[in-house]
Amino acid sequence: MNASDRTGESASTLIINNGLLFDGTQARARIRHLLIEDGKVARISDEPIQPVAGARMVDASGKWITPGFIDIHTHYDAEVEVMPELPESLRHGVTTIFMGSCSLSAALGSAEDVTDMFTRVEAIPYDSLLPLMKEKKTWETLKEYRDHFESLPLGVNVASYVGYSAVRSHVMGFERSLTKQKPTKDEMQQILGLIEEGIDLGYLGLSINTNFWDKVGGNRYRSQLLPSSYASWSELFQCIRLVARKDSSLQCIPNISTKYEVFVYLALSMMRKLRVSLVSLMDIRSNRSIYRVLPIFSRIANLFRGKFRYQALPELFDVWSDGIDLVVFEEFGAGSRALDYEDQVEERRKLIDSKEYRKWFKRQWRNPFLPRVFHRNFGLATVVECPDESLVGRTFADIAKERKKSTEDTFLDLVYQYDKSIRWHTKVGNDRLKPLQKIVSSNQVLIGFSDAGAHLRNMAHYNFPLRMLKLVQDSHRAGKPLMSMEKAVWRVTKELADWHGIEAGHIFEGARADLVVIDPAHLDASLEEIHEEPMERFKGHERLVRRNDDAVPYVVVGGSIAFEAGQFAPYVGKKRLGEFLKARTTAEAGTRRFERKEARVAQKGEADPSEAAAA
Fold first, then answer.
1. Structural domain boundaries in the chain
2. Which of 23, 32, 372, 409 holds its CA 20 to 30 A away from the CA of 267?
3. Which of the 8 DSSP states describes residue 102?
4. How far is 544 from 32, CA to CA, in rounded Å?
């Protein structure tokens, strides 16, 4: 299918002249000129390319040209059905996204099962998600789900994990999967068969979740853990051995409060030479040593044949909450209990008003021995919206001091009074520059963990690749470069593609034309500014975003300009630009890299030394 078939009104020939080309390989960036035809990079030239009939001309003077960015951790599994262009990622230059993360997937199970698994843990509105799944879900199998993407007018490329919660509930039945019952022998074979089928179909691998924060929503089994969390280690080991044998990838979220499960996955990576990406490495305020300690263990594991990486964000990790409705409260029993009543205001008010509950909440909130990720310090939480405007801009600790009450009682009083009408903000981690620089410079991490498509009112990390480039550019301007800009681009493009075995993140002759034109002058503080934007096709629910469209003059997907000067092309969301990207094994990826290198040598007579080294 050529570009004009995919996009209708889009030109099948695009010429981009005079841009500083970062090809994704870490080769030295140079001024280059690109001819794009029928969705592919037809020519990369040292000299400007002259206009041809019907071609769209773009002058990228003073701009960078990079491969399209890759987001390795999203929960777009629902949004892609109603907003298949995935505009909030597309506008920031993300041209490939991964779904099926954290054991969750829409590939298998009924509409009700999928909704119940996504709605609480990922804070996706139930009233939007259930009707959407009932309307859109026409597939039953992993193959049908993969093929389903052929019919969607995708704005970006999509790849997906096989989610273990979806597989377990599909085979065992949703109710049984929410218990510690072991699958029967036949059920275990079905489970393994589905995982193998998915990998053979080109899924990225398997995603597993054993984090006790993450719970089922809906009204049938609300507050149960996700199905993946009920699996025994012997059950999980059988699945993991299969993933290793297939030379595929494992994405996992362990119990992030206790952290000991990290060592299980480190050992598995060593023993099985298994590719593992784990959520997540961060300089968290509750434990300032974590970001230093964990990479030491992964470095040791990787010395002994391991293939282990942490997912990490290159930016401040901050959150907003409407009252008590924030996932961090799932970390302890009293907080989780309040979230059980998310849509039952009066029941929650009764709970919060009881003396017994308040004692329980305070006891757990203050307990220094309970494992924690959230800092649990109301002195670090600032009110940003409230019917009582006199509270806006103040911390809960300040308000408590004025009222001569404990911070916990003050917080609960305000939730009792205003429920979701009181909104507050706090920084959870990555709030210090030097530790953040250390994290993004580590070869033990993969850059990414946006949670795009989830926690719509709580987080805003859609533009993390641009913020990565800003972080590195700022270090150059300060005279203390973290890494070359070429390496920074590689970290959010080709490194991620090669690790996961997909064909993306690299600009070369013959490559699929997914790329971004960036104005480096606008990689500035405006990238940090927060906004709330309504999602018109998601019942008007609002999501938090950080935007600076001036930083991204053009986004090209499949050879067509999808985003230009702050506007989406008229065919975006109507015609298909992206596609389902199939993952390859490491051996297949190595063969493909060798073939590309040979092709470059044949085209140029001899390879550029820096390009050859990168290859």
1. 3-66+511-614, 322-426
2. 372
3. G
4. 37
